[in-house]
Amino acid sequence: MTGLFDLTDLESQLHHEHRPCFTYIMNLKGKVVIVTGASSGIGAATAKLFASHGALVTAVGRDEVRLQQVADICKTYHGIQPLCVRVDLTEDGSCEEVVNKTVETYKKIDVLVNCAGKTIVSSLFENSMDTFDDLVSLNLRVPYKLCQLCVPYLKLTKGNVVNVFGNKCVHRPGFLLSAILCSALQCFTVSGSRDLSCEGIRMNAVRPGLTRTHFLANFNVDEDLMDLTYNEIANTQPQVINEPEDVAKMILFLAGYEHPNLTGNNLFLGGGATSC
What is the pTM of this model? Predict the structure, then answer.
């Protein structure tokens, strides 16, 4: 019948005639990127992805063997060895060490990716503040401190910060601290972006749902049972398990310089679920 919109023809045109319009290449060659938590999981995938796009990476982590393995893979892309900084970021002076070594090596900072973090089951029925102090120190104080230290250099490069933390949390027993920290980091990202925007610095957050990382190690799940456990969780909850590489792609997108007005956003990768 004449006058009807032919979807078959349109699909053919999009696939053949206008295919170059859908090619999206991040221009990060020579950009200096600090990635914390780079020895495993999302941080490791992020370091590799940035390196594959020509970025100069500072990979920060605590596990020397795994950090070196990540660095070796990064080097295969463009022959550039990342700067590896093995530190416990919660120790005094460690954040300063990361920033100072990065500037000494690369002379600038373009992007800070705050990826280091952990979750521990805890409760208000505990009689100690140790778990609270431990989680707040790594998950909140470290990103704040690193951002504070990087600001003078990010001002010069009109750079940006990407925070990585959990999806929207349904309040479950044992995860009160996770919910508190997610709310705090969301506020930090939104309010911090307003503070930084006057200097041309952007700040955004990626909020992944359950991701196939070493997260389950915190609950004493054996390494050889992790895949089975993740698959069982995926079958019982309305969500898809993220792969670290998928989260890294979103981090790369936010860190790119193609969208200068993209700031103050919390981007969720929860597969339609409302919690991590």
Answer: 0.82
